[in-house]
Amino acid sequence: GAVVSQHPSRVICKSGTSVKIECRSLDFQATTMFWYRQFPKQSLMLMATSNEGSKATYEQGVEKDKFLINHASLTLSTLTVTSAHPEDSSFYICSARDSEGAQETQYFGPGTRLLVL
Amino acid sequence: SQQGEEDPQALSIQEGENATMNCSYKTSINNLQWYRQNSGRGLVHLILIRSNEREKHSGRLRVTLDTSKKSSSLLITASRAADTASYFCATDDHSWGKLQFGAGTQVVVTP
Q: What does the alpha-carbon distance between residue B10 and residue A31 come to, in Å, rounded to a whole number?
């Protein structure tokens, strides 16, 4: 099956620093990727839709200047949490749709656990 | 925002028993999907059911969809300890593939 990777798998940073998370589709091309956030014992909340070659689309209540998304190639999307604060600590998960295959199915990455001290 | 609600929130059963969880949603959908998540891990796609389908099977999984009631159910038959995980439903409501997830059901299967 299709594989999506995320890097890093976990990161600890100081308050005020910026953190970049990468999401890669390893064996397929993805014109569209999605970024989710999941707080402990809660469900996934969609943050934004990342489109290759164009601006990301953010969900209501998600600050685009706080969560910068770059989808520079068909296999890579990055999420940068700028000036991270403790309340940004969460589990960030990306997913990707295969541009060639059945686009109903999304393939999820293993997630990145962010802890801001 | 979350589309769906799931019940129960938590389910504890013994190996060999069946586990049933339900998902309700609010808007019209293109399809509904069920995912599984082991603690602290990513999501694994289990099954997708389209809006014009009523029932679907995959191994020990059986999913039903009632669009008139805007609800779906996931049945896991002959459960195993390895089925212990959180299960989420997610709806694709024609919005360019964006998924809205339910709150999830935490299933614990004891040997």
A: 36
Tokens coding B110: 């004891």
The pairing of strands B10-14 and B105-110 is parallel
Question: Chain A partners of B97 at a C-beta cutoff of 8 Å?
Answer: 32, 34, 97, 103-104, 106
pLDDT tens digits for range A32-58: 999 999 998 889 999 999 988 888 999
Query: A16 by DSSP, 3-state: which?
Result: coil
Contacts with B103 from chain A: Cβ below 8 Å: 42-43
Q: Which residues contact A21 (CB under 8 A, 6 or more apart)?
A: A6, A7, A8, A11, A78, A79, A80, A81, A92, A94, A112, A114
